[in-house]
Write a structure and sequence with these properties.
alpha+beta; paralog of FGE (formylglycine-generating enzyme); 4-stranded mixed β-sheet; 13% strand; globular
C-alpha cells in the first residue's frame, strides 16, 4: 500500500490536470492520515463572530468592527525549537531551503522547549508547507497564483491568491483568526481581564529572555503564550487603515501594505503591546530574538488521526 505522502503526491500531480481530485481527497482522508502522531497539539476553535479591535487602543486598532470566522484549529503553543528542527531537517531533505536557521529562544538558559526565534515570516511560511508535506497534507502556499508549484525556497512576496485556502495543510493564521483565538470569547484588553501580571505572561524583560512554552496559564480556549514570550507572525500584510474596509467574513488582509503583521507582544516589550487587539508589523525578511509563530489548519469533518 502506498504511503500517505505518496498518495498525496499523486493527488497533487492529478490536480494539474482537468480532473476532480477533491472528492477523492475527502473520501481518502482516513488513508492520508492513518497513524501519524501529530507534531503539534492543535486546538479546535469554533466558528463565530467577535468585535475586532479596541476603542481604547491606538488609531490602527480602530474602528472596532464585527468579524465572522469559519472554524479552524490553531497550535496550542508557539512552535518550539525542537518542533522547528524536526520539520526543518525533513524539509531540507525534500527540496526546501530556509533563509534562517532558527534558535532555541533567547537568553542564558534556553532549551529545545523554548519557542523557536530568529525566524522570518518567510521561514514560518516555508515551515508550514514543510509540515504539511511531512504529514501527507496538501500545502497551502505556492510560487504563483496558478498554484501549480509548491513554495519551497526563496523570499517570495506572496498575495492572497498564492494561497490554497481550502487545502488541508498548515498555514499562518490570519490576523483576525489570531485575535479571535487570543480573545477566547473575552471582550477585555487581555484574555485574562483589563490588566495582566507577570504571573500570567512573560513580558517586560522579567526573565531576561524567552520561557518554555506552556509555562504560564492558558486562556479560556486552552491556548498558551498568546500574550508575551514571542511575537507571532500572521499571514496578513499590514495596513493601518485596513479596519475601515475589512470584510465582515474571514478577512485575509489587504492586497498591499508595509510588512507583515505580528501579534501578541514578547518577552522584552511592555504590557501595552500584549493586548489582544494590539497590532505590529515588520519586514517579512527580518528574523529577531522575539519573533516566532504558531500555525493553523482546517477542522475536518471526516476521520482524522489526532496523534
Amino acid at each position: 500500500m502506498p504511503s500517505p505522502e505518496e498518495i498525496n503526491r499523486i493527488l497533487n500531480e492529478l490536480e494539474k490536470e482537468p480532473f476532480p481530485v477533491q472528492p477523492f481527497r475527502e473520501k481518502w482522508k482516513g488513508l492520508l492520515f492513518p497513524t501519524y502522531p501529530r507534531l503539534l497539539e492543535m486546538v479546535p476553535i469554533p466558528a463565530g463572530s467577535f468585535q475586532m479591535g479596541s476603542e481604547n487602543g491606538i488609531s490602527w486598532e480602530k474602528p472596532v468592527h464585527r468579524v465572522s470566522l469559519d472554524a479552524f484549529k490553531i497550535a496550542k503553543y508557539p512552535v518550539t525549537y525542537r518542533q522547528w528542527l524536526e520539520v526543518k531537517e525533513w524539509a531540507e531533505k525534500n527540496g526546501y531551503q530556509f533563509p534562517n536557521q532558527g534558535r532555541k529562544g533567547y537568553g542564558e538558559k534556553t532549551d529545545e522547549n523554548h519557542p523557536v526565534t530568529y525566524v522570518s515570516w518567510y521561514d514560518a511560511v516555508l515551515w508550514c508547507n514543510a509540515l504539511s508535506g511531512k504529514e501527507g497534507r496538501k500545502p497551502c502556499y505556492y510560487n504563483s497564483p496558478n498554484r501549480k508549484e509548491v513554495y519551497r525556497s526563496g523570499e517570495k512576496d506572496m498575495s492572497n491568491d498564492y494561497v490554497d485556502w481550502e487545502a488541508d495543510g498548515y498555514r499562518l493564521p490570519t490576523e483576525a483568526e489570531w485575535e479571535y483565538a487570543c480573545r477566547a470569547g473575552t471582550t477585555t484588553e487581555y484574555s485574562f481581564g483589563d490588566s495582566i501580571t507577570k504571573q500570567q505572561a512573560n513580558f517586560d524583560n522579567s526573565g531576561g529572555g524567552t520561557s518554555p512554552v506552556g509555562y504560564y496559564i492558558l486562556n479560556n480556549w486552552e491556548l498558551g503564550d498568546m500574550h508575551g514570550n514571542v511575537w507571532e507572525w500572521c499571514w496578513d500584510r499590514y495596513d493601518s487603515n485596513y479596519y475601515q474596509q475589512s470584510p465582515d467574513e474571514n478577512p485575509r488582509g489587504p492586497s498591499g501594505g508595509s510588512g507583515r503583521v505580528l501579534r501578541g507582544g514578547s518577552w522584552h516589550f511592555g504590557a501595552a503591546r500584549l493586548r489582544s487587539a494590539f497590532r505590529d508589523l515588520y519586514a517579512p525578511d527580518i528574523a529577531f530574538d522575539g519573533y516566532g509563530f504558531r500555525p493553523v489548519c482546517p477542522q475536518f469533518t471526516g476521520k482524522e488521526a489526532e496523534g
